[in-house]
Amino acid sequence: MKHCPLCNGTLKREEKKTLYTYKNESKEIVQSGDYCTVCGEGFLSPKDIKANQKELADFKRSVDHLLSTDEVRAIRKKLKLTQEKASVLFGGGVRAFHKYETGENAQSKPLDILLKLMDSGKVSLEDLQRVG
Questions:
Q1: pTM value?
Q2: Coil, strand, or helix at residue 107?
Q3: Quick one: angle between helices 46-63 and 69-78, nearest 10?
């Protein structure tokens, strides 16, 4: 049985609704973790944090009017690019698109605009390769 490092109460594995706020916008997310039955403090493992990483990233992107992780992936696949090829073509490092699609990092606003233009057909892959 695990004990709370703050009050020595018992830690119980459970899911709790947690309110996240970003730029004056809020969203409730279900967060798994070990929660103290006495003081209520929560302790999250790296696995617990990673489980909510994509949902939190998409929430922040929504507030910032950026494409979601799934939208980035869908556009990349529509362009028939691997993550590696997209990273080379658009810049940002070899694993950039992996990070955008898992929520590890958000794409820049200029890249987001370019992806939206490419998705709408206003800019083609050939256009980008010609100027790149």
A1: 0.83
A2: coil
A3: 80
CA distance 130 to 108: 22
Q: What is the bridge-based pairing of β-strands 11-22 and 25-36?
A: antiparallel
Which residues are within 8 A (CB) of 11 and not within 5 positions of it... i.e. 6 or more apart? 1, 2, 3, 4, 34, 35, 36, 37, 43
AA identity, residue 69: T
Domains, in order of start, for the chain: 11-52 (no CATH), 69-126 (1.10.260.40)
- Spatial neighbors of 67 by CB under 8 A, at least 6 apart, are 61, 75, 107, 112, 115, 116
- The pair of three-digit structure tokens given for residue 91, joined into one six-digit string: 């810049």
SS3 of 43, please? strand
- Residues lower than pLDDT 70 in the chain: 132
Residues 79, 71: Cα–Cα separation, whole Å: 12
